[in-house]
Each structure stands twice: as structure tokens, then as C-alpha cells.
Amino acid sequence: MSFEQLDALYRRVIMDHYKKPRNKGVLPDGNVTIDMNNPTCGDRIRLTMKEKDGIIEDVKFEGEGCSISMASASMMTQLIKGKDINTALKLSRIFSLMVQGKDYDDEQLDLGDIEALHGVSKFPARIKCATLAWKAMEKGLLSTNE
């Protein structure tokens, strides 16, 4: 597959998650809720997770923002649901390195659709958009471990 074809595929994946977000909504029985925003562009998110015995049993998000921010939240919720906290935090570190264009070791973890956001590294102003939901997830999970 050529670079142009791969780039077009990634754009389609991002737009699919933006137009038909997964896990969007309210999680009434969640026990972790984090609100975050990106003041530079106006993106905002409310992430709600149901964590039990170190496992993210369910996760949903609400918010408004650009296609990168909302697609990233959709992809993240799909990826972390059912994972243990340590795995979710590892995925967040990998994602952060990936969107910054830095080398990362995926540690045999399936990155799923989030690989489509690899190209964000070419647009430094969009990195905060892509990482907003991930930062909310980290903040929420780290606060449950204190």
C-alpha cells in the first residue's frame, strides 16, 4: 500500500470515528468522572469510567471539539474498555509518544484504530487535541490509585 493510500485510509478511519463516535454518552453508574478542556482550541470532554478491581469495565465520553479530538476519544474508549489500569496507562504513554513522532515500543499491544492518528505528529498544534481524552483518562485512573 502506498503512502497516499495509507494516508487516505487513516483519514477515513478518523472521520468514521468523528461522525459515528463509539461509547459517546453518559455512564450513570461510573465511579470515575473527569472534565477537561483544551483552552487553545476550545475542545472539551467529560470522561466517565466504571472501574472495578483494577479493570475498566465501561467507559463513555461526552464533549465537543474538532474531528481529531472527538475521534481520538472514540478510539480510546474502544481500546481501553475491559483493560486493566496498568495496560490503559501503558497505551496512553505509547499514544503520547506516537503523536509526538517519537519512537515507541508497542509491547505487543494491539493499538487498534489509534494508529490512524500517527500523522498528527506532523501538526504540532493538533497534538493537544489528540491527547485530550487520553490525559483525562490518565488523570482519572491515577486519582483512583491514590
From TrEMBL:
What Pfam families does the database record attribute to this sequence? NifU_N
Organism of origin is Caldibacillus thermoamylovorans
Q: Which GO terms describe its biological process?
A: iron-sulfur cluster assembly
Residue span, NIF system FeS cluster assembly NifU N-terminal domain: 10-129
Q: Spell out the protein name for this chain.
A: NifU-like protein
Which GO-annotated molecular functions does the record name? iron ion binding; iron-sulfur cluster binding
- Transmembrane intervals: none
Family, as annotated: Belongs to the NifU family.
